[in-house]
Amino acid sequence: MTRPYEYFATCGGEPGVVSNLSHLGMSDCELTIEARVHRDYNAGGIYLSYFIPAAGSAGSILPIARTLVRPKVIRTLVRSASIVKPDLHAFLGERRMAPDSLPFTGRVTIYSDSEIADADWSALAKAAESAGIHLAFRGPGFARARAKAERPLAFILHHPRDKDSFARPLAEHLRGFGAPVWFDEFSTPTVASLREGIDRGMRESRAAIVFVSRSLLANIGAASEELDALFSRHADREDRRIIPVLCGVEHAEVEKHSAVLAGRRAFRWDPHVDPLAALLFRELTGMDAPLPPLQ
Asked: Would strands 241-246 and 207-212 be described as parallel, antiparallel, or unpaired?
């Protein structure tokens, strides 16, 4: 499931960590809060975003949210970010404002893995507004709604036995890079579900990342010609790609089961995941992978 953190990690800005909360009057808080300071030179202002992890035993993130939107806390974060001079990219001949001259716009966005009850949110937003803070909240409901509306770059096709060992780690890395992918919906326990998963996934996504293991090849079995025809039908379109990831199998084994998979440029599974995820991100987007999200 898509997490709010995935949207926070790719929202830009200058990252920082609010790990010492004692000076904020929250010495008993064990959570590490991440913050980003955003400089908008077109609009001429600064705004902030926070990520608050799930509250866990703490119960509610409301006290933390109240503290983070206090003007004194915001001023401290903005001053700290001003110490780092950003690399400014300007048009040739353009004269720009100095980083330290940008005013705070009052805009603050909170991302969190925990929800805030409607009544609590109403009170928090009202209190923030009275202090000149324009507050927005992006929790699990926001992440679900946005993920549903986005067209994924890829769906990940895998056998159920390969879900935790291969599919999930890669999906999490790609999502951390800001590449929306689906994988839970396309587990393939039967040939029928494999056909359905391929057809639906290729309709709704721009590419298919296929984890080709011995379990998946055994599942293809006698339906290989039918599945090859299904793959070919989608792959003939310019906006559809099929990307095999070989997991402990050789090309000759793949060739015996699927001509389409064997004929595609394949990647080999890397247990370190990071290098493979970066290669696949470039394959999907044409861009180098961004720096990993803050942990």
From this structure: parallel
pLDDT tens-digit series, residues 108-141:
999 999 999 999 999 999 999 999 999 999 999 9
The size of the chain, in residues, is 295
- Which letter does DSSP use for residue 165 in this model? I
Cα(81)–Cα(132) distance, rounded to whole angstroms? 21
pLDDT in tens, 160-217: 888 889 988 998 888 877 777 877 654 455 556 667 767 777 777 778 898 999 988 8
pTM for this entry:
0.55
Task: Please check whether residue 250 is in contact with residue 218, taking contact to mean a CB–CB distance below 8 angstroms.
Answer: no
CA dist 48 and 242 (Å) reads 39
Q: What DSSP state is assigned to residue 288?
A: P
Cα Rg for the chain, rounded, in angstroms? 23
Which one, of 110, 106, 221, 97, lies nearest residue 159 by Cα? 221
User: For residue 73, how many other CB atoms are within 10 A of its CB?
Assistant: 19
What residues contact 98, with CB distance under 8 A and at least 6 apart?
none
